[in-house]
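Format notes (please read before filing issues)

Several people have asked whether sequences and C-alpha cells are stored in separate files. They are not. Every record keeps both together, in the order shown below: the sequence lines, then the C-alpha cell lines. Line labels are part of the format and must not be stripped during preprocessing.
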Amino acid sequence: MKTTIRVGGVPEHFNFPWQLAQDYGFFEKENIDFKWSFFSAGTGAMVKALEAGELDMAILLTEGAVSAIIKGLQAKIVKQYITSPLIWGIHTGNHSGLENIGACEGKKYAISRFGSGSHLMAMIDAEVRNKKIEERDFVLVENMPGAIRSMEANESQVFFWEKYTTKPNVDNGFLRKIGEFITPWSCFQIVASNDILENHPEKVEAILKTINFTCKQFMTADNSIDMILANFDMQPEDALAWFYSTEWNTDYTISEKMLENVMYSLKKIGNIQHEVKPLELIGAGVNLV
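Then the structure lines:
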C-alpha cells in the first residue's frame, strides 16, 4: 500500500525539480503517493497548512521556517533546499511616485501573509537601513495578483517579491522595480511535520534522496534552461541569469552559523522573542556544519 505524502511549494522556477521527479515517476517508484500543491500566497500560507495538518512537508523560505518552528510549529527542517540567497525585487505601482527604497518611509507594504518572506524581508531591509515598519503599515494582499490590484488602487506602495517571478509584471507595466534586496542567507529549506517524521521517517528519507538526485541532474543537464523557458514566463536572458545564480543543495548539511544569523535578525526585528539552539530546528538526518 502506498503512503500518501502531501508537499507544498511556491509556484516558482525553484521548485521545478519537484515537478520533474513527479513527472518521471520517481516518487511512485518509492511506493509514495506524492501529492503536490502550489501555494501562491507563499511561506505564511504553507505554515498555516502545516499547522492544520493539511501538508506533511513544505519548501519554506528559511526565515519563515525558522520563525515558525520557534513559535511552535510542530515540524523540523529536514534538508536545505536552495543554498544560494534569494534576490528580492522591491516593487511599487504606477501611481505611488516612488523612485527608490529610501523614499518608502511612511508607505504601505503589500504582503501575502504575516510570516511570509514579503513581510519578514521588508522588515529586515528596513532594519538594515535603520528604519522601522509598523504593523499598521502592512496590507494583506494574498499573492501577486492581489498586490497588483492593491498597487493599482494605491492602497499599498511597496511590494517585496522574488525578482524573476515578478519581472514579467514589470515588463508589462503593471509594476515598477525600484530596488533589490539579497537575502543574507540560503533561501529555501524543506520542512517536515513531526507527525510524518514520527510515522513515516523512511518515506521522508526516500523523498529527500529523490529530490537530491533530481536537483543534481537538473543542475547539470544540457537542456535545463530550455525546460525553464518552456514551463515559466521568463525571457531567455532572465532564465540564464537566474539559473547560474541558483544552487540547489544535494546533501544533508546546513550551516549552523547561518541559522544563528537568521535567528539574530528575526529577534532584532521583533519577530521572535528568543533564540534556540540550531539543533532544535533540524531533523535527525541533518548535519550542522
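For reference, the curators noted about this record: The longest helix spans residues 201-220. The CA atoms of residues 97 and 197 lie 50 Å apart.
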